[in-house]
Amino acid sequence: MYTDTAVAGDVNGDHVIDIYDAKLIVNNAGISGDRLKEDLNKDGVVDIIDFNFVEKNFISINPYFPISNKPVEKTKNLTLEELKKTLIDYSCTSELFQHRNSLRNNFRYVYMIRLNI
Ligand SMILES: [Ca+2]
Ligand SMILES: [Ca+2]
User: Fold this and answer.
1) For residue 52, which of 93, 16, 6, 21 has the smallest C-alpha distance?
2) How far does the centroid of ligand 1 lie from the alpha carbon of residue 33, in Å?
């Protein structure tokens, strides 16, 4: 399989897989589309699966660009664990939100039927 970089997970294309790639995925979590650079497994949505690629290859350097940037493991306020927790929290919240929305729509539907009687 051809990839732009030797290992999957380099979202921003700087030849290293580090905290900034993880951050991009978390910032764009839940977005869907055809050509998202954050969508590493190309299933059309940015989610925890894409994050797992970054986690798996975290702190890797593209061997074809060995003298490129140094991967950054964490920033002053961010670690990979914290980002992952944010992403998981987000996923739970959005599922709950969707569930609540579908309940509300069902309720509205029932209500409208009642008005018609
Ligand atoms: Ca990168
Ligand atoms: Ca994906």
Assistant:
1) 21
2) 21
pTM of the model: 0.76
C-alpha distances out from residue 113 to 38, 79, 105, 117, Å: 44, 51, 12, 7
Task: Measure 33 CA to ligand 2 centroid, in angstroms.
Answer: 10
Please count the CA atoms within 13 angstroms of the CA of 106 that sit on its side-chain side: 6
- Domain boundaries, given as residue ranges, for the chain: 19-116
If the chain, 117 residues long, is cut into consecutive pieces of 10 residues, what is the mean pLDDT of each piece? 62 95 95 94 94 96 82 93 91 75 70 59
